[in-house]
């Protein structure tokens, strides 16, 4: 058995029909923060499992509904997710020690609006940042990640380009 995942971040109160179409084909949707408005989350397919963390732009309503950090396990893979994570080898303050303590196989963050997947050999952990699906920010291309979790492995990882920001 496998679980199909859509990883999104930095919606900044924006989600479009094209993004929602991709979300229909997965089992779980993970949002790595900067949701912007809870209306974004309310547009997600209701039958999907949603996991999310709040980001630095999120208001009290988002912060009341979602945690700053989320640690969970799916298909034998331990995941740690927060919004501001930095990137290997220069993680944000306190992140490296948190990864070291939790020992996830996958660390997920957003914030940079830069899509990046990299294996950190020092932490023995896969770093994943899906970029941004929203219109706010300096990124040129709106992106998300799709992948499958099966038997303790990540399979069929793909970067989805959703179109240029501002169009």
TrEMBL record:
Lineage top rank: taxon: Bacteria
InterPro entries: Calcineurin-like_PHP_lpxH, Metallo-depent_PP-like, Phosphodiesterase_MJ0936/Vps29
Pfam families, sorted: Metallophos_2 (PF12850)
Entry GO MF terms: hydrolase activity; metal ion binding
EC number: 3.1.4.-
Cofactor(s) listed in the protein's UniProt record: a divalent metal cation
Stretches assigned to the Calcineurin-like phosphoesterase domain: 4-151
This protein's UniProt keywords: Metal-binding
Entry similarity comment: Belongs to the metallophosphoesterase superfamily. YfcE family.
Protein name as catalogued: Phosphoesterase
Species of origin: Algoriphagus marincola HL-49
